[in-house]
Amino acid sequence: MKKITFYAVFLLFIIALACDKKANSKDKETILKGRATILVDETLLPVMEDQVDVFESQYNATVTLIGKSESEIVQLLSKNKQQLAVLPRELTKNEAEIFEAKKITPRITPLATDAIAFVCHKNNKDTLIDLQNVITFVQGKDQSGFKGLVFDNPNSSTVRYFKELAKVNALPKEKIFSFDTNNEVIQFVAKNEGMIGVVGVNWLFQPKPDMTDVVKQVRILSVKSSKTKGYVYPSQENIFTGDYPLTREIKMLNYQGFSGLGMGFASFVAGEIGQRIILKSGLSPVRIPSRNIVIRKEIEKKE
């Protein structure tokens, strides 16, 4: 009886071990399989959500996107609480110190070129804006003629971008407004004439279904700068050629330190299918996807 009991327990142990190995093998992360969490600058969230939908439909992978402000993402990366992010800049040497200490070399993959756009209420007659006026406004010298400047988030990449342009450490306290998301900026400008919103162009060219009508209530402004010959609209062509003055390169920052799902996802976005999704979103792809043209030898005759 004892002998039978021993064999039964041993058999159960072998089965459990086999199941455990099978589960571990199933959950093991590779470049095209497993689970991964990616932090995404909120200004880029719509296009990255589209990328994930297609990626997950083709591979046995689950990618969770977390939209946050640039400042929050940098803090999480620099503390090694996350290892994957999509940002319009790379980490500085000080920010990446913890990874250097662990001898982890980042994999940086260019994904697209994004643009920052200005929007106003649809009833505003003027659809042009001088970048120098915005810079002067951010410096606290109100000579712009508009009621206020509206940002998505005090810690966002757009705020950091304009603070660097204006060479200031902080924004003025008067006539500067900020919310949490790009959609909130668009909604506010759509209801308040004279306000100028600052948003990622992706939110305008690729709005969510519940934002389609709201986006129609605002106008996208053409921008003039010291580097342009005139006023330039943030069209996909002008972003690609660099004629539009407020562009920035979007990159995938991978600090995993091994060949994981982050590498596979970055390769997908930078590849043929991913770049087509970028093209459709209104942003400028890193490389123009190829086109397959079928040439027929004979023209069909219709009777």
From TrEMBL:
Indicate the segments annotated as coiled coil, or none if absent.
Answer: none
Keyword entries, A-Z: Signal
Q: Does the keyword Heme apply?
A: no
InterPro entries from the entry? PBP_domain (IPR024370), Phosphate_ABC_transporter (IPR050811)
Report the Pfam families cross-referenced here.
Answer: PBP_like_2
* Secretion signal, residue range per the UniProt entry: 1-18
Q: Which domain of life is it from?
A: Bacteria
* Annotated PBP domain residues: 36-271
Name of the featured protein: Phosphate ABC transporter substrate-binding protein
Q: Which organism is it from?
A: Flavobacterium humi
The record lists the lineage as: Bacteria, Pseudomonadati, Bacteroidota, Flavobacteriia, Flavobacteriales
